[in-house]
Design brief:
Blueprint: H1 8-38, H2 40-69, H3 72-91, H4 97-110, H5 113-118, E1 140-142, E2 148-151, E3 158-159
Antiparallel strand pairs: 1-2, 2-3
Helix pairs in contact: 1-2, 2-3, 3-4
Bound molecules: zinc ion.
Zinc ion is lined by residues 152, 154-155, 157, 166, 168-169, 171.
């Protein structure tokens, strides 16, 4: 299967996810280092939170990688995260407006046909459905009136002899 062109928005999403992952890991390392300095109970708490940040940071990198490669699971994860973001934004006060807009935009973007195609969530090309129950017949069929009419090679409709296109399906007719 030919590689699809990576949509620009997907590149942006991948870079943003990587950036967020980078920040999360930095913050996580900072918290872990701080916990090490403080020691005691704060060591356990700070260390755990720092570890979680690092874990989320790594997850962001994994998602970024999936976005970049057009992996189907990355599309699903991205969509779920965006939906969670919208719900969280709706539950929060007006400060969640930016989050609401951003995540709404991501949901809108991820469900665009060309983006879904990139993630393998939609067929690459929609081929016209094959015409069923049509028995191939010679292109030209004389009628009872003796006039030659042209049978459409695609849909089988009879057209006037001088017709350039099929009156039913619009296929170009070659007499
Ligand atoms: Zn036709």
């Amino acid at each position: 299967m030919a590689r699809l062109v990576r949509p620009t928005g997907v590149i942006i999403l991948a870079l943003l996810a990587a950036l967020e992952g980078f920040i999360l890991i930095i913050v996580g390392l900072f918290l872990a280092a701080l916990a090490g300095v403080l020691g005691g109970l704060l060591f356990a708490v700070g260390g755990s939170i720092g570890g979680l940040f690092i874990l989320f940071g790594i997850m962001n990198f994994v998602v970024a990688y999936g976005y970049w490669n057009g992996s189907g699971w990355a599309w699903i994860v991205g969509l779920i995260l965006a939906i969670i973001g919208v719900i969280r934004a709706l539950l929060s006060s007006w400060t969640g407006l930016i989050s609401l807009l951003t995540n709404g935009l991501i949901i809108y973007y991820l469900t665009r046909p060309h983006v879904q195609r990139f993630f393998g969530k939609a067929p690459a090309l929609t081929p016209p459905p094959p015409t069923p129950s049509f028995v191939p017949s010679p292109p030209s069929t004389p009628t009872s009136q003796g006039r030659t009419r042209i049978r459409c090679p695609k849909c089988g409709s009879l057209n006037e002899e001088d017709a350039k296109f099929c009156k039913t399906c619009g296929t170009k007719l070659v007499p």
